[in-house]
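Notes, Module 5: Reading structure tokens.

Key idea: the token line is not a picture. It is a compressed description, and you learn to read it the same way you learned to read a sequence, by spotting repeated patterns. We will look at two proteins. The first is printed below with its tokens.
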Amino acid sequence: MSLLAHAHQQPEGAGEEPPDTGAARPPAEDRHRLTAPQGLAALSLDAMASVAYGPESIVLVLAAAGAHGLGFTLPVTFAIAALLAVLVASYRQVIAAFPDGGGSYAVAKRHLGRRTSLVTAASLVLDYVLNVAVSVTAGVAALTSAFPSLYADRLWICLAVLALVTGVNLRGIVESAKWFMVPTAVFVGSILTMIVAGLLRDAPASTEAAAGHASVLAGNATSVGALLLLKAFAAGCSALTGVEAVANAVPAFRAPAQRRAQRTEVALGGLLGVMLTGLAVLIGRFHLQPAEGVTVLAQLADASLGHNWAFYVVQFATVVLLALAANTSFGGLPVLMALLARDNYLPHVFALKADRQVHRHGVLALAAVSALLLVFSGGDVNTLVPLFAIGVFVGFTICQVGMVRHWRRERSAGRRGKALLNGFGALLTGVSAVVVTATKFEEGAWLIVLALPLLVLAFEAVHRSYGRIGERLGLGRVPEPPRRCHSVVVVPVSSLSRLTSKALTAAVSLGDEVVAVTAVQPDAEGARAAESLRRDWELWNPGVDLVELPAPTRALGRPIVAYVQELTDRHPDNRVTVLIPEVEPAHVWQRLLQNQRGAVVAHAVRRDTDAVICRLRFRIGAEPARGAATGR
């Protein structure tokens, strides 16, 4: 059946499995799914790595108010940690309510309507794609800061890192999780060790990292007002990107998938909250001031551990994790794209899975778009960061509002408290989305504001196309019973050979009537070739008529297309099949020796007629008499 015939059906291989009830899956299938520790490594890299730039975003905003403004770093971080707790609690409920994955998209689709769900999906798609580009460029930026000689080649390094992460993910999400567990553990262990060591110190162990770097504290400090604190809060919320990734990829976990995903979500929130709060405490404890050319995290590592091997371990772990944080998108976006494809908002090819539970087409599409962004930005992280957090805040807000409606419809115990919690979270993330968009609009946020509706329109266009296809195919209605038609098989030939004999044998077996056709070129050489073929055909006498088709433009396909159209017009009830004989060489390199006549004819017939195309393969090898016919 043609792929178009599946327009409104569940696409084959789309992973249509019922909600996870904890029942064991087949061992071979479950082996390629995630445990909770593997899920933490595969899906939390974005959130974990954000501690490298989240606290710094807060400090840079508060630096406008001078040293006094930096004193508000801890209260702002506490507010972000509180929002993190709300989001973790909310997404834990999302995992339970929507075990097929999809996160914010699934919530909006059920409770807020189709159009709102598409806005959510578009925001998540943009966030996932930008996460890949930002993570790769940030990691490479940290690398080139340590090795300045690599700065000129940063774009090629970015593309190489992207190719590496893509290759790992094409092997399966479990394989990628195994690769990323060690870097994640080293990074988390380094940050926690740094926090504990810093809390045990009364003064910085070293300030060498910031030596010679100019402070970025404002000379004419502004006052600390509500707007400044709101900007700092919104900037620091960039550390929350990636919190939703676990809820989007619930089907990727081993059974019982819901419980494993919930544990992973709680572990992610707990670790992220501890690290953000601990770093904020150290910033106040050491009276750290942001400096040009050195990161806040580097200064904290210097102050807590000293300028020694431990300092470089923290920096190296940060470089690796930032570079690999793109894996969150590779784990979450292909699953989201599969859900959109099952709902007919993306081509159905994105719902197909490979043998390792990999949505390969989604992985490749994400890699391709991310590569374009890297080329567009030239590998510069500052070009991409202003666009990063907006999409995820839109998704957060819609998800929280959807969960409020979910609890209003549910009759479970404690629903009012849960609804209040989600409503409060929606208010906080909604305000953050507005503030980030307003403050970053001229720095590139306008691209996201423009891209969101365009992506929604693209989803709608795909959906309408599938609707028209389904209507033409009569999907959902009982079709008329099949009936037998008179079958005419047309076989293009150019000479006599065993291939010609095999083709006519197959054609006689397939149809009620068989016609061999040959295109005659409009020159003396073409006339001689046609005369030779006609004479040989009469001597051979296969019992099949040979029809000569004039080819005034020397085109191979047009004469055959015109003949097929003539047959169809003359007998509309006939079923015309064009059987194209082709040689299948013994070695791949020998395909370069073929003239591709069969492909040209097949393309022309498929484009301009409704005839069935059958391409017969005559294999050249140890058994030259063997042939194979492939219907398409």
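Here is the second protein, with the sequence above and the tokens below, as before.
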Amino acid sequence: MRTFAQRRGRELLAALCSTAMALALAALPLTAHAAPAAGTAGAAAGSAQGAPERPAPGPDPGPSLPAHALGRADAPLDNPLKGFARFYQPGSDQNTGYPHSLTWSYFGLSEVMNDASDCRHYDWGALDSALDETASYGNQAAIRFYIEYPDGTGSHPANAIPPCFDGHVDNRVNTHWNTISPDYDSPYLLDALKDFIAAFGARYDGDPRIGFIHMGLIGLWGEWHTWPYDTDTSNDSYPNYMPTDAHGAEIIRAYDKAFTHTKIEVRYPESAGGAADDLPAVGYHDDSFCFREGSPLAGVTLPASMGGASYAQLQKALDHGVENRWITASMGGEVRPQIQSTAFDSWPGGSGEVDDMKACLELEHTTWKINEGSAGYSPTDPKVAAAVRLMGYDLGVDHAYFHDTAQGSTKVGVRISNNGVAPFYYPWTVSLGLKDSSGKVVTSWATPWDLRTVMPAKIRAFPDWGVGSDPTYLTYGRAQYFDTTVDLSGVASGDYRLVMKAKNPLEDISPNAKKLRFANSGQKADGWLDLGAMTVGSGGSGGSGGSGGSGGTTDPAGYEAEADGNTLTGTATVADCAGCSGGAKVGYLGNGASLTFNRVDGGDGGTTPVTVHYATAVARSATIQVNGGPPRTVDFAPTADWSTPGSSTVRLDLDAGTGNRITIANPSGWAPDIDRITVT
């Protein structure tokens, strides 16, 4: 258990009183290990876990599926389930101040357990009212239940001991904080708390209105300490009001059992003697995040190897070997109230009482923080924006893989990377869809894709791991490739935009639900990410670009760049290309060199979709000319590399019959390498 020296207690008082004042003014997956056996306090403190093993690579896209490069852009600051949380203020606009998607609130246990004669009677009205109001603003809630809260919150009671405890549970007075502490070792209390947790989970586990739950219940503010009436009795005359580690472990295990979907967090890695050490679903919340205190100043988040105190949050995580818990569980808490207004002034480092903020975020793998002081931040502050985008997940799609023209069943794939410090923790449904020319989604398909598997691309190493001097970054997550087959048989022929969306379940409750948005330039405010143009053919089955479909339809005509009948000028040359159709491409186009596809079939003539399959590791442009007519300039986005084709579709005016010539060139620069063209 954490112990507080007298100096620590005074500074803790200032921090927590700042939080209480803000509330008062407002009124105005790692493999799971076996759980500890009943009656034990969890694993004993050991040593650092060390650098985690890099996840195994997933599948790669098939070489026959054309690649479409997507542009990157900054993700919005109020992406759901990450960033800052503001205090719940009943009746107030929750979307003022710095952009955010989380709302924070405490609740007194006596507000739910309010029947003096029945500890199993639960009135959830206060919680439901707050959750409904928060959802109406499109936000998710982060919450904690408490029993004792010095001076109350202004809208919730200071003494939240349920009335059904009267006559069954002894009470003690904490004269330092003027609170009443129940006997946390009382069998009656322990049974009542475990029954409450079970009922809490049965009603709210998986509720889309809730993002994160602090275990709470024990100690001042539900923070699992009763300073100065705590376990450290060697240097003071105060008795210990905390429960035994064994009894605290019962509460932690009860939460772990009751909540198998909603993310839960406990205050300290050493809470209940480290009872959560072997519970991979339990995260931690650092409520004094990135603060430095004492003389000389020492950090209360960063480990001792980085100037932190012996009781610092990450030092305790190292002591218990849970510094990599972020892989399976969320890391929350609060920016220490004293520094909230200045926490990011010196980003990426810190100054004075503010510790190295970027290091705090990277080593803790922070997803979210209570930060009432963020109300005063400018939404255009680039330092705060950099920190918020680093927190939690930052998902982007670098390539989509699909045939530009398709009918029947066709395969669609995407490759997603994560530039944040933590994974996305919820199994939100990812769907594909088609938008028509008016922007309406005309059809959609749910996929089995799991965003939780997209791990951060790099992680920062603790100096304690001994893998290099600080900062050392280790390559960790890989861009994850997902694909699925969609059925186009019911879709009318025409030109569409292929789109993708990860649905926030809160959208089923609130029309204002914040959408998960990817870090891509094609991301739309409605949540749909534009993957590129797709033309749907009429009838038939089978994806385009194959060896022919059934049902009497013909695949688009394909013309290889390296074919003997084409005309190459200047430096243009045929080169091997493992990912290209036919294993070859034509490169060194542009700067006077050209490639002409001869004898292209224009069918009955007229405007015809022509798809150019190309490869380029950098953005390039080219001119496309039909039958010696005026050239048309087309921009080509980068592909994964020089051997992974992408595609771009243009509509060209072709003559009837097979005498068409299509020339690709660039008079003033290099053009992309060309794999082939297909003509619908």
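Summary for the second protein:
- Residues 400 and 414 are 4 Å apart (CA to CA).
- The first helix runs from residue 6 to 27.
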